[in-house]
Specification:
The longest helix has 39 residues. The chain has 21 helices and four strands. Helices cover 61% and strands 2% of the residues.
Length: 593
């Protein structure tokens, strides 16, 4: 494979463009000085506009891994097996219906906030692990796509490509937090849309390419009868496993209002499908190409281990030089731009939900931001290792959503909608889900199964039963049943109060406050340093940090003037330091044994 100087120039030009936009947008974030604000960096001040919001929400899934993976699977298995575009689009729709409005209305900062508020800080820390692995796997898929693209253009090894790409992505992520992510997403989607659609007609008209209308047997694909269970399993995995991700919720929580967060999810779902069309066509073109009639000198047909290179190979060998300049540069810029959001998401959760909440509660905003920067390097390193050890980008997609689907989605559903669930149910379900999923094995990681589900194929050593969905449903059931059981045992005094070791059913600390039936128990272990978020259905506001109002909670459109005229007695709870002996009626209710 010859060194492509034009392709290299294309990458450099688009890299500089993305970096310039990222640095310009990063000036908005408050990362230094007395105004340093970690929440501002994580959520861009909750001030993302409509147009930028549409682009950045669409870019939740549309990036280098998305477009390279779509072309790869259409080429190898056919368009019928290309489930990710529709699966992730439906996940955005359902995320908007089920969670976007509720999560944004309560003013959370990360996806893990409701877990730590309801189930406790340590249980939230455990749930951080599958969330972290999911973000690392997704980042690895993105970096792998970028490494594959550079290896095609510059004729260097995949290992060097991924390492160099990771370094670029890590440095870029440090510039401006979500501000940089959001504004570079605009450039990213323009690059993908214009660059790939420009390449499609040239690739289809290449002399070595047979009309895709005559080669449907090569790129449509077929789902065999025995494959339907696993087909449905993986589709459900993408739909529901695509919801509980910090990369999605950081966009939801950065929206100006709950209604806008919901609308952005719906519009982005359409964008996901539209942006998958050109890479799908390119995959069909690759399947219809006589590669021996091109300058491509590799094995024909393209072997499975090189299938992730399909899209850059088409752009390089089936389009004119000037078109490949735009196409290859655009793909590379898109990949680099999308990698920062996953790294930022994982780092935000670590800095806020692990370091700030569990390790050092008194940490200043500058300290939290410093920890976030160190976390960016750690997450980037883990993603790099995964990117160079797993070959298939599309395989990484499924691996990304797997643990999230089985372990996080049922827990998220429970913590938002099932008020009676508690820490006992969450912990029990966590263990059950982990055992059931790992027990099914994972070929991509070399994990052999120790649970052989029905329909197991001993010849191919493959699970054909939809065990991922089964594991998810069992995890949800375990959360509900164990929570209900422990609630009954403690409330009927079958178990003594002292055995409520998690202090979430009857042995509740005095500083735990019940606010309305909608939210259940909200534990404030240290009111001076722990932010709590919620709202009553009537007031639509909540106080945090000793009675200060959380400006992110906008259940209704309330102007500054309206806020100033709100009767303080209508806002719950009042600041403790403002209550005197004559205000005993203002104290939150206490629950006796």
């Amino acid at each position: 494979m010859a060194f492509n100087i034009i392709g290299l120039i294309g990458i450099i030009v688009f890299y500089v463009l993305i970096l310039a936009v990222g640095m310009w947008a990063g000036r908005k974030s408050k990362q230094t000085g007395p105004d340093a604000d970690s929440e501002d960096v994580m959520l861009a001040g909750r001030n993302i506009g409509l147009v930028v919001g549409i682009f950045t929400m669409t870019a939740t899934w549309v990036g280098g891994g998305y477009i390279n993976g779509t072309a790869e699977v259409v080429y190898t298995s056919g368009v019928l097996w290309c489930q990710a575009p529709f699966g992730y689009a439906l996940s955005l729709v359902l995320g908007g219906v089920l969670f976007a409005n509720k999560m944004r209305a309560k003013g959370y900062v990360t996806m893990l906030d409701p877990f730590q508020i309801k189930y406790g800080e340590r249980m939230g820390g455990l749930l951080f692990l599958p969330a972290l692995l999911g973000e690392v796997f997704w980042s690895a898929a993105i970096l792998g796509a970028l490494g594959a693209t550079i290896s095609v253009i510059m004729d260097i090894s995949m290992l060097i490509s991924v390492i160099v790409s990771a370094c670029i992505a890590i440095i870029y992520t440090l510039f401006g937090g979500l501000y940089s992510v959001a504004y570079t997403d605009v450039v990213q989607l323009f690059c993908i849309f214009i660059g790939l659609w420009l390449c499609v007609p040239f690739a289809m008209m290449h002399p070595a390419v047979e009309s895709i209308a005559n080669t449907t047997d090569k790129w449509v694909g077929k789902v065999e009868t025995e494959d339907w269970p696993i087909y449905i399993d993986t589709l459900l995995l993408l739909i529901f496993g695509g919801i509980p991700w910090q990369v999605y919720f950081q966009r939801v929580l950065s929206a100006k209002s709950p209604a806008r967060a919901q609308a952005l999810s719906y519009i982005a779902a359409l964008g996901c499908v539209v942006m998958a069309i050109p890479p799908a066509i390119i995959g069909a073109v690759a399947a219809s190409t006589d590669w021996n009639a091109t300058e491509y000198t590799g094995t024909h047909p393209i072997p499975a281990k090189d299938a992730s290179l399909v899209l850059p190979l088409v752009l390089q060998y089936l389009t004119p030089v000037w078109v490949s300049f735009i196409g290859l540069g655009a793909v590379s810029a898109a990949v680099m731009s999308s990698s920062d959001s996953s790294i930022l998401g994982a780092s935000s959760m670590f800095a806020r939900n692990i370091y700030k909440t569990l390790i050092r509660q008194n940490a200043s905003e500058r300290e939290v931001l410093m920890v976030m920067r160190f976390a960016i390097f750690g997450v980037g390193a883990m993603a790099t290792i995964m990117g160079v050890t797993i070959e298939s980008i599309y395989g990484l997609w499924f691996l990304c959503a797997d643990l999230v689907y089985v372990m996080l989605f049922p827990q998220l559903l429970a913590v938002i909608y099932l008020d009676f669930t508690n820490t006992y149910g969450s912990l029990f379900a966590y263990i059950v889900g982990l055992v059931l999923r790992i027990g099914g094995g994972e070929p991509l990681l070399g994990l052999t199964p120790f649970i052989y589900y029905p329909m197991y194929d001993y010849e191919l050593k493959a699970q054909r039963f939809p065990f991922r969905t089964l594991s998810m449903l069992v995890t949800l059931s375990a959360t509900v049943l164990m929570s209900a059981l422990m609630k009954v045992l403690f409330e009927r005094e079958i178990l003594q109060r002292k055995y409520d070791i998690f202090r979430c059913v009857v042995n509740i600390p005095e500083d735990t406050v019940r606010i309305g039936s909608e939210i259940g128990e909200m534990s404030v272990m240290n009111p001076k340093i722990t932010k709590t978020y919620d709202a009553t259905a009537d007031e639509g506001l909540v106080l945090m940090n000793g009675g200060k109002m959380n400006p992110a909670l906008e259940v209704r459109d309330i102007s500054l003037g309206d806020i100033n005229t709100i009767n303080r007695s209508a806002v719950l709870p009042p600041p403790y330091d403002s209550i005197n002996a004559d205000d005993s009626d203002a104290l939150p209710p206490k629950y006796d044994d």
